[in-house]
Design a protein that fits this description.
With about 375 residues, this protein is α/β, with parallel strands linked by helices. It is built from 14 helices and 13 strands. About 50% of the residues are buried. It binds 2-succinylbenzoate and magnesium ion. The site of magnesium ion has 7 residues, from loops.
């Protein structure tokens, strides 16, 4: 499997900047747990002794609905617990290697998105100073990745068909529809009828249970040749997903449930899922995401790269991750224009339904100074002293 070299260049962190940015979304994004009009994100910017730098993006949302993390909580966890621990760890060692960040933080329970953002910033700083790319470090084997698009719940079926038609015109290679009870069979039937050949899948964001009417709706989706149904049941209900897998033909994919490589192995082994959505923030960072990828590969289980409406920074890292060999299905790695009129970085532009894996040092992209100024809503600096 993808070797994880442990010889990454150590860096010496002088300070960590926490920066809140707020980017308007081009279209509101509605899921079974709410509607987002903006991406209000937390960036972690590490500043090195030697003048180097690195960027991380925390994928926590404003409200703790997808998971228990939220962006103000992530900022508090970083400033009070994670950054001080990493700086203390650094004082006792010859600098900080990205491979050591997770263990420096592992006595703090939970908060994978906050931890993952800090590790991402250290990875970027270390790789930039070594002149190596994220893709190279993570084990990318492709120069371009196939892209899908995640379509929020729409006000009407007519709106949904127009939206999907627009994305297919853009070239997306797979369409994912958000569903919830009462907004499932009818919209899926309509999209399948209009686009008989499109690779189609659905994401329930844990909105269903094993109640008879819920199972009946999920079984009805068997008629539409879906590639998968993502996270129908509660995040901690692995056994429920295994039961459901015996009652529906559509393959079950887990998102929220998969919090580590160990949980991925458990879920696959007990038959709770046959496909895995991998998101670095949900599992505590890109290095654990590679381990989830490797576990899936070992268990012959296809994986794909999820998304959390990232800015160009998180997008760059996701595309590098999606270039690993066992990411065999198109990811939620859409172009910048799917989310933002203006991205923080140079925009990621779709070419024949694919995005190119950045090849420059580190993430291969950086915030454009004027965009960073325009979108920043708060900044604080945490120093090592
Ligand atoms: O469940 O995959 C999800 C966005 C935010 C939170 C959870 C999810 C999503 C998406 C969008 O589906 C994926 C993307 O385009 O970034
Ligand atoms: Mg999902």
């Amino acid at each position: 499997m993808s070797p994880l070299p442990t010889n990454s260049r150590p860096v010496r962190i002088d300070a960590v900047e926490l920066r809140r940015v707020c980017l308007p979304l081009v279209t509101p994004f509605r899921t079974s747990f709410g509607t987002d009009d903006v991406r209000d994100a937390l960036l972690v910017h590490v500043l090195l002794d030697d003048g180097g730098e690195g960027w991380g993006e925390c994928v926590a949302d404003l409200e703790p609905l997808y998971s228990s993390e939220h962006v103000d909580g992530a900022a508090e966890t970083l400033r009070r617990f994670l950054i001080p621990r990493l700086l203390a760890w650094q004082r006792e060692h010859e600098g900080t290697q990205p491979e050591h960040v997770a263990s420096a933080l592992d006595r703090v329970q939970g908060h994978p998105m906050a931890k993952g953002a800090l590790e991402m910033a250290v990875l970027d700083a270390s790789l930039r100073s070594a002149g190596r790319s994220f893709g190279e470090r993570l084990g990318a084997v492709r120069a371009r990745v196939d892209c899908g698009v995640s379509v929020g719940i729409q006000p009407s079926v007519v709106d949904l068909l127009d939206t999907v038609a627009g994305y297919l015109d853009d070239g997306y290679r797979r369409v994912k529809l958000k569903i919830e009870p009462e907004h499932d069979v009818e919209p899926v039937r309509a999209v399948r009828a209009r686009f008989p050949d499109v690779m189609l899948q659905v994401d329930a964001n844990a909105a269903y249970s094993l109640r008879d009417d819920h199972v009946a709706a999920l079984r009805a989706l068997d008629d539409f040749d879906l590639a998968l149904v993502e996270q129908p049941l509660a995040p901690d209900d692995l056994l429920g997903h295994a039961t459901l897998a015996g009652r529906v033909r559509t393959p079950i994919c887990l998102d929220e449930s998969i919090t580590s490589a160990r949980v991925a192995e458990l879920a696959i082994t007990i038959g709770a899922c046959s496909i895995v959505n991998i998101k670095a923030g949900r599992v505590g960072g890109y290095l654990e995401a590679v381990r989830v990828h490797d576990a899936c590969a070992t268990l012959d289980t296809p994986a794909w790269c999820g998304g959390m409406l990232e800015t160009g920074l998180g997008r760059a890292a996701n595309i590098a991750l999606a270039a690993l060999p066992n990411f065999t299905l198109p990811g939620d790695t859409s172009a910048s224009a799917r989310y933002f009129a203006e991205d923080l970085t140079e925009p990621f532009v779709l070419d024949d339904g694919r995005l190119a894996v950045p090849t420059g040092p580190g993430l291969g992209v950086a915030p454009r100074p004027e965009a960073l100024r325009a979108f920043t809503t708060a900044v604080e600096l945490i120093r090592d002293h």
